[in-house]
Predict the structure of Peroxidase.
Amino acid sequence: MKALAFLCILFATTLKVKPLLHLSLSSSSSSSSSSPTSPQRSDDPQHQQSYDFYSQSCPLAEQIVRQSTQFLFATDARTAPQLLRLLFHDCFVQGCDGSVLLEENIEGGRTERDAIPNQTLKGFDKIDFIKDLLEEACPGIVSCADVLVLAAREGVVLTGGPFYPVFTGRKDSTRSYYETAVEEIPSPNHNVSTTLMRFASKGFSPRETVSLLGAHNVGSIDCDFIKNRILNFSGTGLPDPSIPTDFLIELATNCSDTSGSRLVSDSTSTTTTNTAIPYYQALSPLLASGNTFGTHYYGALLRGRGLLFSDQQLMYDRKTTKLVEAYASDDGFTFKRDFARVMMKLSSLSGSVVSDQGSPRLQCSRLN
Ligand code: HEM
Ligand SMILES: *[C@@H]1O[C@H](CO)[C@@H](O)[C@H](O)[C@H]1NC(C)=O
Ligand SMILES: *[C@@H]1O[C@H](CO)[C@@H](O)[C@H](O)[C@H]1NC(C)=O
Ligand SMILES: *[C@@H]1O[C@H](CO)[C@@H](O)[C@H](O)[C@H]1NC(C)=O
Ligand SMILES: *[C@@H]1O[C@H](CO)[C@@H](O)[C@H](O)[C@H]1NC(C)=O
């Protein structure tokens, strides 16, 4: 019922709002209204994707996602980083097919949500909320994979990051890949060569990898992921020697509260908490001008203050160090431009197993 009421408000306001997508894509999408499947991905007939794929079948789809993500973000600013991370975990494993959202598998067995990183994936409820609205508006039309791609994009914009156009028309998977997730999702304990290899295996260059990791400039990290860096690095019984002493003390202090502390990724914030992300609170929810999304992640790496071991590792390779320096050295223009491009690439990853793809799921966590 909450969703329905929200939908009514949405429809009432929606007619007055000019769709942002049309403004931004007017040059490239002018042909797509006459021919819904163009421009399409020529390499793969199973992926008839295009800009504004739902322009005929569910014209308000992208607007519903945009406005409901704005609503969720206004209620809970953690929405944006949660969705961004979910997108990464979906697209990195067999492409952007909504498989990370599944709680069941066509042949039974474990799902991606059961894999190691699952314990901390969040935002499933937000996707369900948006999907319910879409089901009210156009039952059975919009795929969960597209909902995640679109909502993550809106989240990036809401935190002050760049807008980037994305195709829609993804198919939802009927399978969730537990083993692949375990094997392919990068670990926070990986060194820089392993991290670069993992991303290279998905077609990302070192430059693209460094810009993608810039996603860690929003959101927060559970102390669990750096406990070993502070206390018992690689089983040595000692802290990670690469952590500067003052930062080590800060980390140890902030993580000493045992009740699930989280470290915020934004160095400008003033508190650590497990209930909220303080640095968002200064941000007027619907204003997309970036106090938040910026280059502080790279600035932190330059000062040895990366939170994850794998983050700080970017300073232990000549190529990636140069990229970190470049991203940190201007007002954020270079990073935002590269981030927009690499998010388009991440959002268009496809899996190798086309036969697992089916019609849009009605509930994102369940098979139809
Ligand atoms: C080497 C690669 C990566 C590793 C090892 C890694 C690992 C992690 C870990 C351990 C967390 C903390 C989760 C928690 O405490 O809840 C995290 C958070 C996050 N990651 Fe990554 N990540 C990687 C790459 C990426 C990429 C490519 C993206 C997106 C493009 C991304 C987006 C995020 C976001 C937005 C958060 C914050 C989530 C929140 O605040 O709820 N990460 N990551
Ligand atoms: C994560 O997976 C483990 C099993 O590997 C399971 O016990 C746990 O409930 C899962 N957590 C979530 C949040 O789904
Ligand atoms: C990175 O880790 C891999 C796997 O653990 C290891 O084989 C490799 O030697 C490491 N590379 C460096 C430069 O430490
Ligand atoms: C540190 O880790 C190693 C290996 O995981 C373990 O054997 C050792 O007991 C740990 N030491 C401390 C002090 O926790
Ligand atoms: C640790 O807490 C202090 C004080 O609350 C805060 O200023 C600092 O940003 C926190 N550091 C990290 C890495 O979260």
Summary: The chain has two domains: 2-23+46-183+350-358, 186-346. The beta strands are 50-51, 167-168, 172-173, 220-222, 262-264, 357-358.
